[in-house]
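One-letter codes give the sequence; backbone shape is given numerically. An example follows:

. . .
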Amino acid sequence: MSLPNINTPAAVLSLWQLVICELKAIVSDKAIAVTLFGGVLFYSVLYPLPYLHQVPTEQQLIVVDLDHSSLSRQLIRHADASAKIQVIGQVGSITAAKQFIETGKAHGLLVIPAGFRRDLLLGKGVTLSYGGDASYFLIYSAVAEGLVSAGMDAGKQVQLLGMLAQGQNPKQAEGSLHSLKLNSVPAFNPSLGYTPYVVPGLFLLILHQTLLIGTGILGAGQWRKHGYWHRVSPVQLVCGRIIAFLLIYLVFTSFYVGYCYHWYQVSIQASFGMVALWLLPFLLASAAAGVALSTLFSRRDLPTQVLLLISMPILFVSGFVWPIALIPEPLVLGSQLIPAVPAIMGMLELNQMGASWASVLPKWLQLWGLFALFFGLAIFGVRRRLHGLLAQHRLSECR
């Protein structure tokens, strides 16, 4: 069978015929279908699963009481009554308390110094020492917050006793103690949990990686054989492939940003129109990058292997799970060529932090620039692949 000439007018497909062919090829390919449909649905449950019990409560605390006074025992009771702390016992030394943390039996230790009650009654400053496992930031902060609250309650009781001893009216003394109240309201993460913080960035990374893998598998499986992709020009093939994947990922993105955000109670600060406007160049740039990368592969298994290996580095350089200041500057600059990096940071600023459109406009324009860059690279790569295969086929016919 002879290879159709891509320059023959009769062999050329229209753009929408090409899009339909692309959609049929995507759906009928088991590897692509599992990656796209199965991966998006599977990861929507798998990634948020460890964070469902997202607010840390009743964290285990071990106490080293070196004062053994009525006030130190009252402090321990107040700490145990806190919703964030559960006092599991008392030991006689810091060394013994550290063993509880090292073995995972406790998340923190509290040291009440000797002379705690005496120094407070004399009006001297007292330092309560706290140590803990800071590997889990929210757990560490929950224990610290509970201890601060318990310490403030104990301090108020001592102040109240001092005022009463000076002859002040009990009601006036209690009113002066409660004249200042702390009203802490989280602005961007109302539940103070992991899910609203981690899930938005992870979902965009999932969309980015599955889109790259899907386009990579489709392209890598086509460059060694002829088919409908040889009946169109490289520009038309790139446009049709981007449109086909864009139609599919509009549904996936709506599922993530719409249903999953609501299900996992992720805060939404931006309007639907602003989110859609932001995500459009992200999807276009990711699809164009996938088509460009697909021209580098001739084996269908390679795109999945390569792109899965770079998923974690992309997650870290995106800046929401690891500080950008701790990442080497050349790596940070190079990561700006990855569409997911500016898309994640801009999406978090716009949708989770309520930033104005003007503040995220540079990243939005960057995504359009990346789309133009990868669109040109995709056309160049596809033209090189198609013409190379055509030349190889003509050479085999001459022989």
